[in-house]
Amino acid sequence: MAGKRTFTMIKPDAFEAGHSGAILKMIEEAGFKVVAMKATILSRELAGKFYEVHKERPFYQDLCAYMSSGPIFAAILEKDNAVDDFRKLIGATNPADAAEGTIRKLFATSIEANAVHGSDSDENASIEGNFFFSQFERVV
Ligand code: CMP
Q1: 3 pLDDT band (50/70/90 cuts)?
Q2: Domain range enclosing 67
Q3: Centre of ligand 1 from the C-alpha of residue 138, in Å
Q4: Which helix or strand (DSSP H or E) is residue 90 part of?
Q5: Relative to the CA of 67, which ligand 1 atom is closest?
Q6: Ligand 1 probe mutation, 88, 93, 124, most atoms within 8 A of CB
Q7: For residues 43 and 82, what is the distance between their CA atoms, to the nearest angstrom?
Q8: Which tens digits make up the pLDDT trace of 51-103?
Q9: 131 CB less than 6 Å from ligand 1?
């Protein structure tokens, strides 16, 4: 059965441009509940750990530099079928390929600075949520 939680980050480009409020509004209006949230700045090292799965990819170093370049919001979201529904809401990784009305189509500026992250599986949603939040913090 599909899980009820996914993990997201509002990335430095969207945070810096002041799109966080509009993005959160879209997330809530799509039926997701924000059950944990924080503004934070990733160190280069932590960005590297978070994206370790991509460490052999040519874009890994740039991605880690970019993700540690400024503040982000990290959040755990709750909804039935959370992972798949959220990926539909945000659209394709490359905003040039993202469907009309999706968060990335509206707010992303490039394949790297693509406004938001969304977990790609229930397992990764749990791993990524635990990366940012302890059980103690998840009080909602
Ligand atoms: P995200 O969903 O956070 O997962 C991995 C990230 O790597 C992705 O969003 C993009 O920000 C980035 N990414 C993926 N593919 C590329 C690419 N071809 N070039 C640059 N960055 C990429």
Answers
A1: confident
A2: 5-132
A3: 27
A4: helix 82-90
A5: 11
A6: 93
A7: 28
A8: 999 999 999 999 999 999 999 999 999 999 999 999 999 999 999 999 999 99
A9: no
Q: Is 94 contained in some domain?
A: yes
Q: What is the pLDDT of residue 1?
A: 45
Total count of domains within the chain:
1
Predicted model pTM: 0.95
CATH code of the domain covering residue 117? 3.30.70.141
Task: Decide if 137 is inside a domain.
Answer: no
Tell whether 23 is covered by a domain: yes
Residue 95 forms part of a structural domain: yes
Largest CA distance in the chain: 39
Query: Beta strands of the chain (E only): which ranges?
Result: 5-10, 33-40, 72-78, 116-118
